[in-house]
Input
Amino acid sequence: MKVLLVKPRSSAAHFGLAPFFRTEPLGLEYIAAALGARGHQVRIVDLCFERRTMAFLIKSFRPDIVGISCLHILDAAATLQLAGEIKQIDPKIFVAAGGHAAASYPKALEQGRSLDAICVGEGESTMPALCDALAQHKPLHDVPSLLLPTGDGGFAATGEAREWLDLNHVLRPDRTAVETYRKHYVCLNYMPVWTLETTRGCRHRCNFCSVWQFYKGSCRFHAARNVRADFERTGKNVFVIDDYFWGDPARSEELGRELLASGERKNWMLAQARVDLVSESFELLRLWRPLTKNFDIFFGFESPTRKGLDSLNKGTDISKTLDAIRVARECGFGVTGNFIVDPDFSEEDFAELWNFIETHQLYRVGFTILTPLPGTYYFEQSKAQLKVLDWKQYDLHHLLWKPRLPVQRFFELYCETWRRTVLNAAGRKKWWEWAREVDLRHIGHMARILTRAQKLMDPQAYLAEFSVPTDLP
Output
């Protein structure tokens, strides 16, 4: 089969740090490797940076099947629109959608009349099985982990879902499939950037996160030797996308020693980690630190108070946060992260957050509005109070129900929170300070990103660009 894998261009991610994180479609690269090993011809298209039309791409490649990645709920509208466009170009093409959001909450796509299947399992197993069945004209009802149209506007599952993959045997991602887009992939002020996965899943139970719920609390690890081989193939700037990085101390030490033995060293790495893991891992961090010239840790700080952490079911406390900041800095890591702003915040809550940021000099942080993402228990529990069910507004920067404060006042304080970070080029950090940290070839790109970021600090940008439910003040 000739398979076209497509990352759609979402039109919804205008706020937050989205302009600073434009990463390669690693999931599609894993699928491409699995399909290639089964003899299928594969191409990957990243519509975020592709200038050719979909009609041209289809007519030049003539795929039998198009797989659309719906990684985030923000991609749902673009996925459905793209599926319809493909069917208009060639109705005979089989169109499937998959990815984390599609699998976690397939209801968001079930109104799509142009979709022939929704993949709700891991792509490396589901897509090859689907393509094999189509190539051999076998019934799709025998393919596990699919949802197929019933003919009456609904979708039905194809029997028992497939077990999670043994990551020891997952092929390394086919990175050659996206090299034409490589120069566009950026994280913060580093570009181009490669993404790396060492772990899949999470054992913690944060109520706003759909990862652990999708994987049912499981956590699996790629074999250290395979991570090393992929690590050696990546470029000088690497973003580790794990949700449970350094989660298993013994395995993390084994992996760190394996990577150090490779002799490969990077310019910059970014890893996401929990504060309670880092606070207890001084020696482990010292082991990992020599792998790269610059090494940043992105923490899910979420709240500056124990009450706030408990409400999010983070399973940690503020003392762990402070210990993690100290340990990371003592070991020579850069400290970045994110805080969650609850719509129930009072003016005092905002002031407490600002004081925490200033006291601990956490200027390289971002902020998101508490959002019940589809696919979480929190979403189901919040349905009664949700005022917005337009998925394009689930970007973690919209109000989905009435806040405690008046809407305009809430956004004034939310923007003031952003204004106190390093992104405030007119205040916290001057443009020439940014310029010193950026490759001269990328100055123009970073200038455009910083210009876009300025509206994070403009309350009117939120009120003017996004619709507010009519019953909110």
